Amino acid sequence: MATPRSASTRDAILDAAERLFAEYGPDNTSMRQITSTAQVNLSAVNYHFGSKDTLVQAVFQRRLDALNTERIEILDRLETAATDQRVDPSAIIEAYFGPLVRHACKADAQRRAFMPLQSLTMSDPNGALRALFAAERNVVAQRFTRSLLRSLPTIPEADIVWRFHFMLGATAYAIMRAERSGRAIDQADDEASPRPQDLLDRLIPFLLGGLCAPSPRGVTGNAFEPTIATSTSGTPP
Q: What's domain 1-50's superfamily in CATH?
């Protein structure tokens, strides 16, 4: 069992690594930079993580866990309050994408570090981080897909899966544009930076329209049908 001091040291290492990875990338961040920023010695990093690769995965895992825990807690409350667990589709969409937008757009430095870290997974040479994101997203996204199927019984499951895939891509682009706009706006007026709720107020109706659109006639599932587990390129967690 970790002592409070041990847990504090571990968190300090994760916080330092997260900031440095977001700024320079894991490959360009040295262990010396991490230990200096965290104000710990190398033996502490080795004790808690064993290797740099394990530390990289732990940084990602911590943010993924926080994000997915928030998503599931929201969905649990929605389904508990709903009749026959049939939740309004817009509420399901916001339960999944709302936490992501808030993590990506909120001013808190640690939360804002998550999106540049996530984008690094697209160039992950050994695929370990991509696999981590895919596995984590698969479990949570399947839960949300089941909830959408209950709430939209007239839409075929294949269409729900496709549309979830499209929503991931649209949200990634929206966050990317908001981040770029925020940096440009911030140069002139710090108070004008994009607020998460402003983005969600525009994004959720757009996603809902695509999700609830009539199914195309004559189109069936095929070998190119995306799966939540493997559709990782260019999309958020």
A: Homeodomain-like (1.10.10.60)
